[in-house]
Amino acid sequence: MSKALPSIPSAPVHRTTALSGKHRKFLTKLTGVISGGMFIDGFILGCIGIVMPAITDDLHLSVVWQGLIGASALIGIFIGGPLGGALADRVGRRPMFTIDLAIFVVGSVAQFFVTDAWQLFAVRVLMGIAIGADYSIGWPLLAEFAPARLRGKLLAVLELAWYLGYLISYAVGYGLTVSSMAGWHVILGLSTIPTVIVFLLRLGTPESPRWLMSQGRIDEAKALAAEHMEHDEQSDLQLQRTMGKQGFGRLFSADYIKTTIFVSIFWVCNVTPYFAIGSFAPIVLERLGLKEGLSGGLVLNGVAVLGTIIAVVFIERVGRRKLAIPPFFISTVALICVALLSHASSTIILICFFTFSLVNAISTTLTGVYPGEVFPTEIRGIGVGFATAFSRIGAAMGTFLLPLVISALGISAAMLMAAGISLVGGIVSYVLAPETKGKLLSEVSAPQRSESGRSAI
Asked: Which InterPro entries match (predicted)?
């Protein structure tokens, strides 16, 4: 049974056209500090492929340990996503928003001192837990403050921050590796710098009014909304009159089962090919005959940043579905071409890889938008956390299995498997992806079925 809260008179919704200076400043800062967490996530994942050869030589890694260390942060995210989301739904967004970064600081510093494979694996799992929690705390927090007409763009900026973190980490690691200026301990430990900066900037972030409302703390919610939210969102907040059932089970209720399936499959089919290829970009490109695998991987990541910028610019113009669905089918064709033309010229291979990297990034940007929109406040954290965890199953498996598949079956088989995953993502998205452009949060997160079993209006 849902717990009824005191009735609040509904207010007419007005579509405002411009942010006030105060609200613009607040949203800019909030987007920045949440983007910082995404930047850090990309940063710790971007350099692992660069330093893997050095780690392998120094710690005498087997192929299995290479895969485990490459996937370690992803395994941690699998744990941290649901855990952080559940805590954010129960105790609030604000306290968890800084705790997770504090944990990450500890893990970043510890990377300077690891001496064994299991130590490195354990430290990066811990860091992954903190990042997974940050997904399921930060995305709901931004979605719950952002105005409807800007929500998609602001959430998409978070993914841009991830790609920038990945690219910068890859570029710094590439430069330090080629010049032999620093060892792998230092390259991995550089994540300490942005983590400390973001941690300090997050201090003083307010609680989400929507979360406060879901807990029955109406006066606090209204006061914070008046200070930090535009009129449309304040009006929409007043429609949140009941505290629905919390917890993991509601994700699989009749109201949200299709939403959960869509978000999870959409995410896993986007990131699995990217992580499998991106984490081992130098190895993949060299096995395809490109001698400059490291530099090719750098350009590949730069193209991904361009794709994310395209998504940020157009998401509120063309809508979600047009950016989410076509890239899957284009990626499928590009990866099949790589598999079938692996012995062709390096130019053709690079064009196919760059095409995949560009369109995959466009679609993957939506993985930072949909999860924060389509779940209601009381399960938004656990919803994002579950989707995060599910996506990391595929990403971790792809990262772990890619070197094994290449070794056993060859590069063409690995690329065909990646193409198959992209094809599944395109079909599922075509059937289930909603269009949420310009809609208020109460509209896009409304249950798909009423308690009587009918579709919700």
From this structure: MFS_dom, MFS_sugar_transport-like, MFS_Sugar_Transporters, MFS_trans_sf, Sugar_transporter_CS
